[in-house]
Design goal:
199 residues; mainly alpha
């Protein structure tokens, strides 16, 4: 009788152990799967940051040049007269590439990640620098639509407003450029934190 009870207890303990082990292994497999998916999500964000950084490295120096040209032409009456006669003076002497920028940085991967439950698997330092980068990036190019609206306005180069419109245009360009410098600072910090390749 005692032997039978001992065997029953052993079998019961074996069943309980098997169930607990099965649950543990299942949980670990699921956890591993989530960690791999989070790593994939992070790799997509890192790829997006790398592309955005290349855009920034291409356009920020040009924006700095635009600000310098506008500063040097600020009180140049000959330039202002040429600008009043034709907006093309702005392209010939300031916007030498013919536009402000060809492309703007994207934030699609970051937007997806922010609302994804897997973001809890991201390292805090990585999450912090990504948050700073994308927040700064969003603010950096806010003046662009205003600049385009100003540029397309019928009285952009009207004699009575040409000088003040150029000043407004320059101030908005300076704001973009200074924000780009801060964004570049965050991107530089991200190189080590996110393990981005340096260029």
């Amino acid at each position: 009788m005692e032997q039978s009870i001992l065997n029953s207890i052993k079998q019961l303990l074996l069943i309980v152990f098997s169930v607990v082990l099965g649950l543990f292994l299942s949980e670990r497999i699921e956890e591993g799967k989530k960690e791999r998916e989070a790593a994939l999500l992070l790799s997509k964000i890192k790829a997006e940051v790398a592309v955005n950084r290349q855009l920034l490295q291409e356009w920020a120096p040009y924006h700095g040049e635009i600000v310098q040209r506008l500063d040097s032409l600020n009180n140049d009456q000959q330039f202002i007269t040429s600008f009043i006669e034709s907006e093309s003076a702005l392209f010939e002497q300031v916007l030498t590439r013919g536009n402000l920028m060809g492309d703007t940085p994207s934030d699609d991967a970051w937007d997806i990640a922010k609302s994804h439950p897997l973001i809890v698997y991201f390292d805090y330092d990585k999450l912090l620098i990504l948050s700073k980068i994308y927040k700064q990036q969003a603010g950096t190019y806010k003046p662009v639509p205003k600049m385009i609206e100003l540029f397309l306005s019928a009285d952009f180069n009207a004699e009575s407003q040409a000088a003040s419109n150029l000043q407004t245009f320059k101030n908005q360009m300076r704001e973009i450029y200074s924000r780009e410098m801060q964004l570049m600072h965050y991107m530089k910090k991200a190189e080590t934190i996110l393990e981005l390749e340096e260029h």
